[in-house]
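Worked example 3 (structure in, sequence out).
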């Protein structure tokens, strides 16, 4: 990197530390301040933190676009817009009104302690920041020449340090900075790519890259559509809706965020297609940074690389806090405090439990970061296995006549069926009946609900 590019990166780190540690002394003393910013999250704060934390797998997006073209938009964008709209109108306001702190907290309140702990174990896997820590370690190594281990430790330490002191308020403040860098970086990449090679309509691309399937089967696209049900049990969505100052803020915030997601998706899709047209053969994971190195001058390249880092780091700190809450509060604290039923004013050691969870989260994430081969494969695998066990029980938890005695069967059996289906697929060199594991999992959940209702 040119020294000007490194200067921008250093400036970003300085601003991140300043924003992260600014006015954090009081946050650790009040559980609701630490976990949900006092439930006073404004509309602008809601939007910037929700938008910026959604794209932690940005290198995976580049990898998929470089390899399969516009298919990326149809599996990683459109389905999530649809379910986010449904989320906004159906449950965002209701989450805000229930006054629970997290998804496992709601499961505990609606279904009891065991269901709460089981849901926390699922969320712990879904919200683990390991793949994003891996991504940022690879990116720092690629752009700065630092060793992979040092890159991982630096990124993890920086992203989680201000959470230790400031909690969710620190996440929101830093997300505002990261929001600006991510949009500015990809806008510059698109502008300079167009200056270098003309409008996108003149690019020479493989025919498959302009097909919505990208060469895959329609069933593959449909599975990804249903995996987007993940949105309903996304702990980041839940946390921000719970923290919003009103139900209207939660609803409007999600709808506005969809507009920003659409803009950013157009930027990432367009630049991914430029990368395919302009770059020689190489690792698709580095499509974006390689394109940036080709078309961007100093300063612009520094802003872009900083934007990539900001995109990933905004997800690491958010998921790091969620994982810490899940492990520290929803598992450790629930096990050690079985008689506590007050979901708002839990004991004075709440912050201590969450910080214990943060240490464990960082340790597990660093270990997993060395063993995860692909962010996209991880999304697909975890989504296929765990989402069927969470979605239906979560949605019916808003009903008054919820089936408490059957919810564990509804949570565990779909996960076991999906895992069994994956094992069968390995043994038979193909899934039975050609069905992806998500389908038998979600069908099992629905059947259990219907049978037990009779």
């Amino acid at each position: 990197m040119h020294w000007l590019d490194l200067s921008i990166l250093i400036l970003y780190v300085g601003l991140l530390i300043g924003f992260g540690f600014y006015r954090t002394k009081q946050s650790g003393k009040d559980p609701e301040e630490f976990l949900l910013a006092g439930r006073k999250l404004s509309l602008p704060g809601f939007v910037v933190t929700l938008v910026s934390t959604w794209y932690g797998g940005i290198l995976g997006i580049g990898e998929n676009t470089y390899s399969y073209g516009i298919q990326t938009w149809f599996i990683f964008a459109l389905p999530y817009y649809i379910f986010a709209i449904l989320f906004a109108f159906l449950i965002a306001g209701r989450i805000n009104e229930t006054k629970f702190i997290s998804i496992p907290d709601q499961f505990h309140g609606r279904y009891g302690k065991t269901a709460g702990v089981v849901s926390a174990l699922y969320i712990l896997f879904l919200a683990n920041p390991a793949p994003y820590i891996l991504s940022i370690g690879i990116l720092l190594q690629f752009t700065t020449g630092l060793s992979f281990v040092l890159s991982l430790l630096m990124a993890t330490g920086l992203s989680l340090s201000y959470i230790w002191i400031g909690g969710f308020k620190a996440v929101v403040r830093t997300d505002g900075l990261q929001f600006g860098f991510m949009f500015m970086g990809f806008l510059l990449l698109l502008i300079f790519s167009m200056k270098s090679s003309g409008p996108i309509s003149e690019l020479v691309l493989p025919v498959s890259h302009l097909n919505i399937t990208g060469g895959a089967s329609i069933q593959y696209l449909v599975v990804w559509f249903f995996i987007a049900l993940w949105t309903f049990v996304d702990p980041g969505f839940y946390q921000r809706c719970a923290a919003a100052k009103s139900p209207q803020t939660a609803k409007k915030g999600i709808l506005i965020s969809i507009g920003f997601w659409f803009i950013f998706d157009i930027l990432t899709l367009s630049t991914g297609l430029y990368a395919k047209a302009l770059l020689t053969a190489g690792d698709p994971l580095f499509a974006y940074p390689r394109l940036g190195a080709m078309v961007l001058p100093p300063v612009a390249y520094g802003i872009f690389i900083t934007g990539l880092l900001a995109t990933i780091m905004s997800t690491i700190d958010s998921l790091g806090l969620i994982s810490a809450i899940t492990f520290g509060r929803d598992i450790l604290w629930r096990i050690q405090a079985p008689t506590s039923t007050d979901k708002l004013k839990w004991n004075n050691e709440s912050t201590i439990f969450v910080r214990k969870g943060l240490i464990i989260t960082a340790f597990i994430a660093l270990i997993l970061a060395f063993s995860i081969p692909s962010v996209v494969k991880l999304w697909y695998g975890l989504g296929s296995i765990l989402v069927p066990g969470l979605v239906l029980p979560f949605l019916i938890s808003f009903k008054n006549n919820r089936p408490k005695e059957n919810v564990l069967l509804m949570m565990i059996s779909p996960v076991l069926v999906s895992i069994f289906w994956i094992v069968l697929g390995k043994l038979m060199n193909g899934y039975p009946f050609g069905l992806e594991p998500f389908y038998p999992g979600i069908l099992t959940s629905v059947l259990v609900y219907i049978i037990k209702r009779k």
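Notes: DSSP finds 19 helices and no strands in the chain. The chain has two domains: 3-371, 376-454.
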